[in-house]
Amino acid sequence: RAALARALLRARPVLLLDEPFAALGPALKVEMLALVAEIAGETGAMVLMVTHDPQDARRLGGETVLVAGGEALPPRETGALFADPPQALRDYLG
User: Fold this and answer.
1) In this structure, are 45 and 75 located in the same domain?
2) pLDDT tens track for 31-88
3) Residue 57 falls within a domain, yes or no?
4) How far, in Å, CA of 19 to CA of 51, rounded?
5) 64 bridge partner residues
């Protein structure tokens, strides 16, 4: 399994981000989101980001996996997820 993971990672870089914008002010947050999107676009990297901020997920687009009640729901296109959110996301958003 480790060899397969190494081979897959060599084929496409992955940016692993855990709440990367949580402590940033609004202006720097926008700048850093743009930088991550630019890096991903230029390198073809996949971005795997953990966030509690729905706007961060929306800005980076792609697919989103919602984790609610300790369970991961199937991945969905981010725009579609927010256009027709499951109950757990509606509850979170208020």
Assistant:
1) no
2) 999 999 999 999 999 899 999 999 999 998 899 999 999 999 999 999 999 999 999 9
3) no
4) 5
5) 76
